[in-house]
Amino acid sequence: MDIVLYLLAIAALIFSVWAQIKVNTTFNRYSRSMTQCGKSAAEVARMILNSAGIADVRIERVGGSLTDHYDPRSNTLRLSDSVYSSSSAAAIGVAAHEAGHAIQHAKGYIPIKIRMALVPAVSFASRFTWVIIIVGFLMLALDSLIGYYVALLGIGLFAVATLFELVTLPCEFNASRRAMEALSASGWYSRQELRGSRKVLTAAALTYVAALAVSLIQLLRLVLSLNRRRR
Fold this sequence. Notes:
The protein is mainly alpha-helical. The chain has helices at about 1-30, 40-50, 90-105, 110-140, 145-185, 190-230, and strands spanning about 60, 70, 75-80. The protein has one domain (about 1-230). It has six helices and three strands; from the N terminus they run H-H-E-E-E-H-H-H-H.
C-alpha cells in the first residue's frame, strides 16, 4: 500500500507541475493573440457585470502576473497588469472568468457560499495544521496517547483544507462556463478568439484539479500513518 501511495503522490506532483507549466505557456501563447474588437479585458469584465445587472462591483488593477481575482469582502474585481488593459484572447478569458465569480457571489451560488464559509477555518489550518500534526506524531513516538488526538486534530484541519479545494472546483468550472457564455453572447469575438480564451481557462482549471489530487493523496497517507502508529 505504501508503494502505491508513494507512486500516486509522485504522479500527482508531476501532474501539478505540468498543470502549472501548461497554464503559463497557454496564457503566454494567447496573450499574443489580440482580438479584433480591441476592447480591453477591464471593459469586457464591466460589460459582463452590467449585463448581469451588477453595477456595484469595482474593477481595479493589481500588480503581478496571473494575480487576477474577485474579492467578495470588498466587492472588487482585480485584474493583473498583464490582463487589465490587454485585448488578447487570454486576457479577456481571464477577466470574464473573474466576472463569473462576481456573478456567482451576487446570485448566491451555493458552492461559492460554502467556500466562503470555510475561509476562516482554512486560514487557521494553513498556519497551524502541520505544526499540530508534527507535534502529535512526536508525542505518539514518545508513547503518549494524547499525541493521537493532537495528530487527529491536525489531520482534521488538513481535511477541511482539502474540502475547500474540492468545493473550489465547481466554483471554477461554473465561472468559466459563465465567462464563455457571456463572451459568446456579446457577439464581439470570432470562434477562433473564443477558442483561445477557452483553452486558457481550461488550462487554469487543471491547476485546481491537480491541487485537489495532491491534497487527497496526502490526506490518505496521513490517515493511514496515524492508524499504523496507534497500533
